[in-house]
Amino acid sequence: MTRALYHEDGLHLQFSAPVTDVQGQEVALAATAFYPESGGQSSDVGALSWAGGAARVTHARKDKATGTIWHRLEGDLPPLGAEVTGEVEAAPRWRHTQRHSAEHLLAQAFRRVNPVFEVASVSMTGPECHIDFLGDPAEVHIQAAETLLRGTLGRDDLTLETPMVPEGELASYPLRRESKVGGQVRLVIFRDSAGEYFDVSACGGTHVPRAAMCAPVVVLRSERVRGGQTRVVFMAGEEASEYLSGVYREARALAQSFSVPVEKLSERVEALRADLSAARTEAEMLRRELARHLLTSAPVQGDLSLKTLTLSDPALLMPVLTQVATGEVVAAAEPGGRCGVASGRPDVQAGELLRSALAVTGGKGGGKPDLAQGTTPDAAGFLAAVRGVLGQG
How many CA atoms lie within 13 A of 371 on its CB side? Predict the structure, then answer.
């Protein structure tokens, strides 16, 4: 079993220990400050050095059966029995620590909003972390939990305690959820200056010494996932601050381009959305009016009242096809290759006519007896093929 120095002092990142085993590109040490990937928290990274050599530690994992922590190295490996000096890379460790503490605290905030919001699973392997909740929290619950935690982190001095507690004594602690391990259980406790517990969880991860050090904790979004669970995606600590700062910079630049303050940006965007919607409605009305004019002015060909149109805009295709008059047949195409047939006659099937014409010019498409659409590499040939199929050429 490897002695877990990260449990004894989570802020001490340098250590020395002998190599106890070597397998492939991994080494085991008698003791280590490298946290092994576990419980949704990523592995620490860093370096090992020894007399005559050094290597980068890219990953650490724990063999649950033996308690041995293995370190995957990039480069040379130290010999068995060698005394190595290890150094955990500080920045990744701190990010992992902030994420994990935020996960505990946010989960507790949800539980205080409603005890039915139980944690099903967690992941903290990237800046965007997530908790999958049971109980189907809605947006109002998410906002309430976020507000509760923001007030707690800003006003209460919650400090960390990590006692090892015999399994038989766990009942005396207000655990947020039942421990999955037995024997000696490591608890992660955040409590205020009055001694009141905020959160108590069985956990082997690394955590900030004071809860406020993982602030801000920001919920980015929520979504439904497997099993009817609700995934709450969040960021915490320095990563959240950096993200929010970037979002604000972009919002400020966008607001300046619209000549409005940031707080008025949403109003400006909504006004532009309304203008765009009105413009689209007007454009659609104008296209239908133009389509009606094109149909009216197009000459009738043959005894089947066929009209063929070459369109300059593909957006005119549907307005033309949906305004065919009773007793007429319309074929239309545009230079880009979109084409279609509409039939106001029971004896002419639009879908069959389209497919017959495409068989001549190439392309694909289909539709119903009254309207069919497709694409073809030869728009002019398509119209000629329609006339030929109907014997109007």
Answer: 10
* Residue 325 near residue 295 (C-beta atoms within 8 A): yes
CA angle 132, 140, 147 (to 5 degrees): 85
pLDDT per residue of the chain (393 residues) written in tens, 0 to 9:
999 999 998 889 999 999 999 999 999 999 999 999 998 999 999 999 999 999 999 999 999 999 999 999 998 999 999 999 999 999 999 999 999 999 999 999 999 999 999 999 999 999 999 999 999 999 999 999 999 999 999 999 999 999 999 999 999 999 999 988 889 999 999 999 999 999 999 999 999 999 999 999 999 999 999 888 999 999 999 999 999 999 999 999 999 999 999 999 999 999 999 999 999 999 999 999 999 999 999 999 888 899 999 999 999 999 999 999 999 999 999 999 999 999 999 999 999 999 999 999 999 999 999 999 999 999 999 999 999 999 865
**Token pair belonging to 388:** 């030929």
- Euclidean distance between the first and final Cα of the chain, in Å? 90
Sign for the CA dihedral angle at 66, 69, 75, 76 comes to negative
Helices vs strands, H then E, count in the chain: 8, 21
The pTM for the full model equals 0.77
Give, for 372, the enclosing helix (H) or strand (E).
strand 371-375
Q: What are phi and psi of 292, to 5 degrees?
A: -60, -40
Looking only at the bridges linking them, the beta strands covering 3-4 and 31-32 are: parallel
Token pair 């305690």 in the structure block, residue:
161
Tell me if 61 sits within 8 A of 43, measured CB to CB: yes
How far is Cα 144 from Cα 11, in angstroms, rounded to an integer? 33
Element (H, E) at 6: helix 5-8
Q: What is the DSSP letter of 168?
A: G
Cβ atoms of 115 and 134 closer than 8 Å: no
Neighbouring C-beta atoms of residue 297, cutoff 10 Å: 9
Cα-based distances in Å from 251 to 111, 114, 258, 263, 295: 33, 34, 11, 9, 48
* Cβ atoms of 300 and 308 closer than 8 Å: no
